[in-house]
Amino acid sequence: MKKILFILFIMLNVSLTAQVVFVPLSHPIYNYLERLEVKGIVKDLVISTKPISRKYVGEILRGIDKDKLTSVEFNEYEKYTSEFSETHNEKGHIFKYNYKYAVMYFDPIFQFDYDINKSNDDNEDENGKRLKGGAKVYGYFADKIGYYFEGANNYEKNNVRELKNWDNQEQGIGELDQGKYYSQVTAYASLSTKYIDFIFGRFSNYWGDGETGTLPLSNKAPSYNQFMIKADYFDKIKLTYFHASLFSDEWDSSRVYFIRWNAGADSFPRRFYKNKYLAAHRLEIIAFDNFSIAFNELAYYGERDFDWSYLNPIMFYWAAKNYTKDTDNLQIGMDCKWRPLNKVKLYGGFLIDE
């Protein structure tokens, strides 16, 4: 036990350059970096396991050869280098607070969208409206701790296809009628060491390459609570593990009871839902400057408390599942990307779902 505590003490006291605050999956910097990767301007790019940290984005930007950029790309480069500043002197925020070892940024969120939809299907031919309001706060403390909160309330009225975001890159929002209020929340805190980051909170993951989704994990589902460990070795190997709690949307009939009033004449059910969890880990390797490959396992299980077998980040889940009498759903997959020539990128993957 003393040896374990000593190792943990050493890990948490490594000198650091920045903490983990993720770049939101909807940020246009992802498309910008991928375009530069396809052109061969950026190499050794490990962004198939998203989200990535603001620190990593800043490192990529500082390594770009500006002479190879077009005028449009250079203007974007100037904007992003200002946004992802190495000294936490980030611009473009409504409010900034900086005191000794702490820095905090605050921005309000206001958005109104009106989309004109035309379709031969009466169920889809409807003009769309969305009103959104909230705030975003993130910051750092003492070169070890990062935090991020983004919350917004929404009202959206549209056809079902648009509401569910079936055909675009926006995040899904669950079950909705033709008009509905809903909330979107991302909130987490992180503790960083030189090689390992620990993150706990509510956010989404995106594993693999794809425009409107990927095989292993995408952001089509709303964000979920999770504990994550990220390890980075020599900028060539990245290991990501997380254990998440999901919403099952299935009643636990053994716990449902009725609340009665009006002398027992009226009642409504008090509903509880079954437990559901997701454990996942992913190893991403840059084999060559123009080729990377990733392997991942995902285990979905529930109707019981969390399983200690799936809390082990380096345990093979196909082996752990044998200890549960094969009652869980396991997915095993891999994906890769290859850039044989500048301006050419090939990617693909497969997933085995039992």
List keywords for this structure.
354 residues, mainly beta, 3 domains, 12-stranded antiparallel beta sheet, two-stranded antiparallel sheet, 6 helices, 16 strands, disordered N terminus
Number of strands: 16
Distance between the termini: 39 Å
Number of helices: 6
What Rg is obtained from the alpha carbons, in whole angstroms? 23 Å
In which order are the strands of the major sheet placed?
A: 2-3-4-5-6-7-9-10-13-14-15-16
Share of residues in helices: 10-25%
Number of domain units: 3
Structural class: mainly beta
The shape is globular
Helix/strand order:
HHEHHEEEEHEEEEEEEEEHEE
Mean pLDDT over all positions: 83
Note the main sheet: 12 strands, antiparallel
Overview of this protein structure:
There is one protein chain. By secondary structure, this protein is mainly beta. The chain has three domains: 16-89, no CATH class; 93-192, no CATH class; 196-354, no CATH class. It has six helices and 16 strands. The strands form three sheets. A twelve-stranded antiparallel sheet has the order 2-3-4-5-6-7-9-10-13-14-15-16, with no helix packed on it. Strand 11 (257-261) and strand 12 form a beta hairpin. Residues 1-17 have low confidence and may be disordered.
